Amino acid sequence: MTDSSSSAASDDSRIVGWRAVAVEMVEGARDACINLKPMAMYMTDQELQQRAEVVAHVIRARAKLQLLRDRAERLKGDLARFMVRRQAMRE
User: Fold this and answer.
1) What is the rounded distance in angstroms from the CA atom of residue 51 to the CA atom of residue 55?
2) Which of 14, 28, 51, 79 suits 89 as a labelling partner, its CA being 20 to 30 A distant?
């Protein structure tokens, strides 16, 4: 494996790792949301704070997951261009 392909493989493994973390965060937040009281019920200040923290975590996790999806698409495009360029150089 060359340095450039090693670097690409490293980037791919990092993306897969970060995506797994983001998915795990969203799933954990989903589980936490199940235990929250409905908005119509009276909540203590602590429960309101907990709800706000869960919502904030979910929003951040979704944003990170979207960034990872966007980066994966860019990397796919980069790889396709690289493969075309490499093929052209071999001809």
Assistant:
1) 6
2) 14
pLDDT 10s digits, 59-74: 998 898 899 889 999 9
As given in the structure block, the two tokens for residue 9 are: 């493989």
Domain ranges of the chain: 3-90
CB of 38 within 8 A of CB of 16?
Answer: no
Going from the C-alpha of 29 to that of each of 33, 50, 51, 60, 80, the distances in angstroms are 6, 11, 10, 11, 36
User: CA 48 to CA 43: how far, in whole Å?
Assistant: 6
pTM of the model: 0.52
C-alpha distances (whole Å) from 24 to each of 20, 21, 30, 50, 68 are 6, 5, 10, 19, 14
56 in helix, strand or coil? helix
